[in-house]
Write a structure and sequence with these properties.
Length: 335
């Protein structure tokens, strides 16, 4: 898998290209996407008492890189970001980016309802070495939403604050409909909006329409939701996958075969790994990666932070049983 990433290139902080010019350049030049491949979400590791376990956090990152991740994403929903304080976000961002030390590009999730706060978070992430930021549209709770006009202004405001790409996370959790036409418009008109993680129902159809409408302005159409729709999304034109963090080695097999033009091999591999993908997506959920990492000696503790409930023992047993049939690296790395 070939990917380009900004951290490997010399930077000139004193030079700022006008956002409108950046958009025109992206739309009128046939430049390969900077980031492609498998970028799994890094889980946040805690002790039983809920304190951050930074030693396990570093081991988690090392495993995920050793398992073939093309890049990583931190502070996402599957990182239990909604259970973290602002100070802890800073500690985790700094700790992980320093420990990764540019071995792979890292996407930092900076979502917030406030344009100002999201822009500030994004600037700090860029200053600490983030390759990209991932941002959900502004929402709060079950009912607080804003208009499409305000969503556009929100992403434009964040874009104006940084010089790295923005990935729009289009997920049901926000309760905010984002049409393919609206996403394509933002890709064309907002300088840093270039990547899209599509996790809505009928994701492949939406990706296909987004690519059709956005053209070269859509630099990164990505699959999400633990790769449960990976093959249809790749057929629709997806070039990246943001999955759970436990078995990037398995997802890489599928992605590498597909991008090498071996679709039949990719299909066979997808069918092989689909039981585990499905179990994570439909049964184990957010805690699946940590359960597998604990089982394989990668991390010391798989506990969530209260009030998130622990995984039911029967669900955990089923998860491990399915994984053992595939023998992923996560079950061997720490032993």
């Amino acid at each position: 898998m070939i990917f380009w990433w900004a951290a490997a290139a010399p930077t000139c902080p004193s030079i700022h290209i006008d956002p409108a010019i950046q958009t025109v350049i992206r739309m009128t030049t046939n430049i390969p996407a900077r980031y492609q491949g498998v970028f799994p979400v890094v889980p946040t590791t805690f002790f039983e008492d809920g304190a951050l376990d930074l030693v396990s956090q570093k081991r988690c990152v090392d495993f995920m890189i050793d398992a073939g991740s093309n890049g990583l994403c931190i502070l996402a929903n599957f990182s239990e970001q909604f259970l973290l304080s602002d100070d802890e976000r800073e500690v985790l961002t700094r700790t992980i980016l320093e420990h990764v030390a540019a071995r792979v590009p890292v996407i930092v999730t900076t979502s917030h309802f406030s344009t100002q706060v999201c822009a500030q978070r994004s600037r700090r992430a860029q200053a600490q070495g983030a390759a990209m930021v991932m941002v959900m549209p502004p929402y709060h709770g079950a009912t607080f939403r804003v208009s499409e006009e305000k969503i556009y202004e929100f992403y434009a405001g964040v874009s104006d604050a940084i010089d790295i790409p923005i990935m729009v996370q289009d997920a049901p959790a926000s309760g905010t409909p984002l049409s393919a036409a609206f996403l394509a418009r933002m890709a064309k008109e907002i300088a840093q909006v270039a990547y899209f993680k599509i996790e809505t129902p009928a994701a492949a159809s939406k990706l296909r329409e987004l690519i059709r409408l956005g053209g070269d302005a859509v630099e990164g159409p990505w699959d999400g939701e633990e790769a449960i729709t990976l093959l249809p999304d790749l057929d629709a034109g997806a070039t990246g996958a943001m999955t759970g963090g436990a078995y990037p080695d398995g997802i890489r097999l599928i992605m590498d075969a597909y991008t090498a033009g071996r679709r039949e091999d990719a299909m066979a591999l997808y069918q092989q790994w689909l039981p585990l993908i499905n179990f994570e997506n439909r049964q184990g959920g957010i805690l699946s990666a940590k359960a597998l990492m604990k089982e394989g000696g990668v991390i010391a503790c798989e506990a969530p932070r209260h009030p998130w409930p622990a995984m039911h023992p029967a669900v955990r047993t089923g998860l491990i049983e399915v994984a053992q049939r595939l023998n992923p690296m996560v079950l061997r790395w720490g032993k």
